[in-house]
Inverse folding.
């Protein structure tokens, strides 16, 4: 298997051997082809026949393994949403909890993602743990869990995280980094002076899963894809990867 250094070397060689003005997209395509793939020697075998009936249980076991293997930010997930008019968006969020079949995230109710989930209460989450060759995709219905859940989540956060969450209005125009630095310093000072203060706009949202798909690269080659579908009870079965 090639290494990342190989890809860098290939791009450098192109810069030397190709004439000036050569289409840079060719260089990028070659670089992308030279990037390393999965290290199958490091993969952990997955037996779908032994998977539990509850997909949340399997997800937690995969997440725990990723944490044990020191995969960076194993709780980071891509959240995909669509507004009421169909405008799609995606961003990375941190998983806060899983409870009663719902994957919990948190954000300000004024944020674009919260507005999208309010307009169109369907969302998708994706976890990808590259060193393990594993991915999980969740789709489901979004519910605002209310002020009490939001307050509990906010107060559990590190002071720096609370300050960042209350600095300005997410996605509003910002005239300079100096303005941000002043606002962050003021927010950090407010958190230190009033540690029990919670913004009324902070919310937790639960994505109640209706489908959960587990994808795993196999050490011997190929992939496994196991899909759970909620039909009063969870049904599971293999699908083509």
């Amino acid at each position: 298997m090639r290494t990342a250094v190989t890809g860098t070397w290939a791009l450098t060689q192109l810069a030397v051997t190709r004439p000036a003005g050569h289409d840079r997209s060719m260089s990028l395509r070659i670089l992308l082809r030279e990037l390393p793939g999965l290290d199958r020697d490091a993969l952990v075998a997955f037996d779908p026949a032994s998977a539990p009936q509850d997909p949340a249980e399997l997800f937690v076991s995969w997440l725990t393994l990723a944490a044990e293997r020191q995969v960076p930010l194993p709780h980071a997930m891509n959240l995909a949403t669509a507004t009421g008019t169909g405008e799609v968006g995606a961003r990375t969020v941190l998983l806060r909890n899983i409870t009663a079949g719902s994957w919990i995230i948190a954000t300000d109710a004024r944020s674009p993602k919260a507005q999208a989930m309010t307009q169109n209460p369907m969302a998708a989450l994706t976890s990808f743990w590259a060193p393990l060759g594993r991915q999980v995709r969740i789709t489901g219905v979004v519910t605002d869990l209310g002020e009490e859940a939001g307050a509990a989540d906010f107060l559990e956060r590190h002071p720096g995280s609370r300050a960042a969450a209350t600095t300005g209005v997410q996605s509003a125009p910002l005239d300079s980094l100096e303005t941000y630095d002043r606002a962050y310093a003021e927010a950090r000072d407010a958190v230190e002076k009033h540690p029990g203060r919670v913004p009324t706009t902070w919310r937790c949202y639960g994505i109640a899963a209706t489908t959960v798909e587990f994808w795993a690269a196999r050490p011997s080659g190929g992939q496994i894809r196991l899909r759970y579908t909620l039909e009063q009870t969870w049904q599971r079965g293999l699908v083509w990867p």
